[in-house]
Specification:
Layout lengths: L38 E7 L4 E6 L12 H4 L14 H13 L1 H6 L3 E5 L7 H14 L4 E6 L5 H10 L2 E5 L5 H8 L4 H13 L4 E8 L8 H11 L5 E5 L14 H13 L5 E4 L16 H12 L32
Parallel strand pairs: 2-3, 3-4, 4-5, 5-6, 6-7, 7-8
Antiparallel strand pairs: 1-2
The chain binds iron/sulfur cluster (SF4) (2 copies).
Length: 333
């Protein structure tokens, strides 16, 4: 293994608001449960036009996570590539970006995703610094849940050319239920990004989960509009997975309705991607209580904490709600 001087922050890790203070380089585990930055996989993607580096681990435990094997690593029980020295990562990224295939599909960027890349900020900084020695104008993208300290957020803004920033709910109670964490730090970071470096916003985005956070969507749109009505907001149709394996996904009509409601808030640039092919989704009265529905699902998955707060949960090391086989999390809906 190489000299880990650049990972000094991880000896007393306070990169996100959980501020665990653990030494991740010596095997101590914080709320995110990961140690040294590890990579799930890398690859050129035609759709995103980027060389994507997917990192393991996350500061959240989202009930709908469609990458739970990566985000809940190592507790998910899957093995991935592991630690890749920054100079090797740079070499691989550089070589991939120079291939004819990359040129043919128009890939010119590097991006970090996960899991949650912000919990590995020093690694991102090192890779970006090294690759920009060879490719000074390389665009670097980041997809984040926005849950990091303001200090970490400033570092991420500094290293990134553009950021996809997810806001899962405004209401803190609902945000806790969906993610295990508070919304306040996310909203503060959203404001920091939007007020200080609006040119770096690719989009704000929200995964739309009918019956859980759909009533929040117009409120999030309002929050963004109050900063700047021209900020792009993208709604992503939830796909059934993880604790919500048997939960209904939004129809196209439902997504259209959500977009319309956001525009009615005065937000100009709203669009959506992804919906469940099929008929119209009709929500009945019981679907109006997203918080109650989220707790129903959490209970079924094994989280008996109410209110949920993964940062202060005695079960974090052996969380009973890490659903290894989502299809066994049978619906009681
Ligand atoms: S949860 Fe946050 S503060 Fe705690 S170890 Fe992980 S990145 Fe560091
Ligand atoms: S049991 Fe604890 S760690 Fe697991 S989801 Fe519930 S609150 Fe979070």
């Amino acid at each position: 293994m190489d000299n880990h001087g650049y990972l000094e922050d991880l000896e007393n890790c306070r990169l996100c608001p959980w501020e665990c203070g653990v030494n991740r380089l010596e095997g101590e585990r914080g709320i995110c449960r990961v140690g040294i930055p590890e990579v799930a996989y890398t690859g050129l993607t035609q759709v995103l036009k980027t060389y994507a580096v997917t990192l393991l681990g996350c500061s959240f435990k989202c009930i709908y996570c469609n990458a739970y094997r990566i985000s809940q690593y190592p507790d998910s029980g899957w093995m991935y590539r592991g630690y890749v020295k920054p100079n090797l990562m740079v070499k691989e990224a550089f070589n991939s970006l120079q291939t004819n295939f990359a040129r043919e599909i128009g890939v010119k960027k590097l991006s970090f995703t996960g899991g949650e890349p912000s919990i590995h900020t020093p690694y991102l900084e090192e890779v970006v610094a090294q690759i920009r020695e060879q490719l000074p104008d390389l665009e670097v993208g980041l997809a984040t849940n926005g849950f990091c300290t303001l200090e970490t957020m400033k570092r991420l803004i500094e290293l990134s050319s553009y950021i996809n920033f997810e806001i899962k709910a405004l209401d803190s109670e609902l945000h806790y239920a969906i993610t295990g964490a508070p919304s306040k730090p996310v909203l503060e970071n959203a404001k920091l990004l939007a007020y200080e470096n609006p040119e770096k916003i690719r989009v704000f985005r929200t995964v739309v989960i009918p019956g859980i956070n759909d009533l929040e969507i117009p409120k999030i749109a309002r929050f963004i509009k109050d900063i700047d009505p021209e900020i792009p907001y993208r709604l992503v149709g939830f796909r059934p997975h993880y604790m919500l394996y048997y939960h209904h996904a939004p129809s196209r009509d439902f997504m259209h309705k959500m977009v319309k409601q956001c525009r009615e808030q005065g937000l100009e640039n709203v669009d959506y991607s992804g919906y469940y092919p099929g008929g119209q989704l009709i929500l009945n009265k019981s679907h109006k209580n997203g918080l109650k529905n989220a707790y129903h699902i959490l209970n079924r998955a094994g989280c008996y904490k109410h209110p949920r707060n993964c940062g202060y949960c005695s079960e974090n090391d052996y969380c009973p709600a890490i659903v290894l086989e989502p299809w066994t999390n049978l619906s009681g809906d």
